[in-house]
Write a structure and sequence with these properties.
- There is one protein chain.
- It is built from three helices and four strands, in the order E-H-E-E-H-H-E.
- By secondary structure, it is of the alpha+beta class.
Length: 100
């Protein structure tokens, strides 16, 4: 079984702007998937200098990744993240690597 490790990495130039944090209902939904052994629990961590923030989720199967990605709550959250980052001059990138 092959899955995906998905990271959303946000970078800011100063500590004056807040990183995007998904709504609690989005975090709860990810953790529901984790309780069903479809992915890891929601993890978010910030670098020591406070300028980089990473959200990481391990999806244990490609089908689980696609299933969650197609949920309206997740698509809405992606739109909110993009808007937040543009408004606050925060760059972000999505890294996806194989999970085996």
């Amino acid at each position: 079984m092959t899955g995906i490790v998905r990271k959303i990495i946000q970078t800011r130039t100063s500590l004056d702007k807040e990183f995007f944090v998904p709504d609690q209902e989005v975090i709860d939904r990810v953790n529901e998937y984790a309780d069903e052994n479809k992915c890891s629990k929601y993890k978010q961590y910030t670098s020591e200098d406070g300028l980089t923030n990473t959200i990481k989720i391990d999806f244990f199967d490609l089908d689980y990744y696609a299933e969650m990605g197609n949920e309206q709550i997740m698509m809405d959250s992606a739109d909110k993240r993009h808007s937040h980052c543009v408004i606050n001059d925060i760059s972000y990138r999505i890294e996806e690597t194989d999970y085996e």
